[in-house]
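Section 3.1: Structural characterization of target chains.
Under the original work plan, the team committed to producing a structural model for every single-chain target entering the pipeline before any wet-lab resources were allocated. The record below documents one such target. The sequence was received from the expression subgroup and is listed exactly as submitted; it comprises 259 residues.
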Amino acid sequence: MLLENKIAVVYGAGNVGKAVARAFAADGARVFLASRTAEKLDAAAGEIRAAGGEVETATLDVLDSAAVQAHLDGIVGKADRLDVSFTGVSFRGDLQGRWLRDMTVEDFLTPIDVAARAHFNTTTAAARQMVKQKSGAIVLLSTTAAGLSGRDRSGFHQPAGFGVACAAIEELGRTLAGELGPHGVRVNCIRSDAISEAWPKAHEKEWRPALDWMEDATALKRLPRLAEVANAAVFAASDRASAMTGALLNISSGSQMFA
């Protein structure tokens, strides 16, 4: 198992956060799962325990830096260390779908502010502990909105502030990687395309044209799956990726290709 006996914190119990927490636990990690929503935490923890994994949960607002630090201090108090930190919280993707020229500055800035605060709070709290240990892996989650093609920017997607937020997450990861590398701490970012299995089935008629458009633009002619994003997070967090830091893991099914 790639994460055997590792201590991991996962921020966010939505579709991606739950999948990553489940994958971490399946690969041997003791998982501390934090989210604002108790119902999502309970559901995720139930699935992990049913599969034989070890998980503890806490309700937490990742925009509250003091609360994030207190929660992490509690983890270290129980486990004596922190090996892995993954941030997979949502940051207002619902504010996409409009031209910048038609938006208010508040709607443009909201996803940027939420993403920057959430990822800064969680990653720097982890960094402080990992620098003390001289070891650890931080994994962030971005999306292809940070690097859309001209076709998508000028037509279908209209990423607005969400795309800027994703680019900010990626730059935060690179900056932290440079800062923390000399202390034995690695920082990597996953860039995933949309994950259609997480879309509401009740509204499939509404989103089916979008899915067809997006799948047609991928090399694999399909979008990535939750399990594939989670597997990438396991690899990035594991010792198998021990020479990898400051990297952008492309989990887009080939909708984007870059060196």
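The beta strands are 7-11, 30-35, 54-59, 84-87, 136-143, 185-192, 248-251.
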